[in-house]
Write a structure and sequence with these properties.
The chain is mainly α. It has a domain of 44 residues. The radius of gyration is 23 Å and the shape is elongated. The termini are far apart. About 9% of the residues have low confidence. Bound molecules: zinc ion. Zinc ion binds next to helix 3.
Length: 96
């Protein structure tokens, strides 16, 4: 009996060590796409809410100097996309 309970204990120990990676998932997500907004180091992968956007549309908000890559479609992280959306909404259509 004593042997059996000991074996059990060992098993639970090794499984808890294995589950280490699932904790703190907000800490470091390993993505493949970086956000193209200058100074922003977030991931722009689809899995974390990233978006693709035409360069020209993004320059409306950040300007050409605010975007780190000049490509037809840049990648935006979720917070940057939200910023863009907010800016576009708050922008008056006609200012005259
Ligand atoms: Zn960003």
């Amino acid at each position: 009996m004593g042997f059996k309970s000991r074996a059990r204990k060992r098993r639970s120990e090794s499984s808890s060590a294995k589950g280490k990676g699932s904790e703190g998932k907000d800490e470091e997500y390993e993505g493949t796409l970086r956000c193209d907004i200058k100074g922003c180091e977030n991931w722009a992968d689809k899995g974390v809410g990233g978006r693709k956007m035409a360069y020209d549309r993004a320059t409306d908000v950040w300007g050409t100097s605010g975007i780190s890559r000049k490509v037809r479609k840049i990648s935006l992280c979720k917070p940057c996309y939200r910023t863009w959306k907010k800016e576009k909404k708050g922008e008056p259509k006609e200012w005259e």
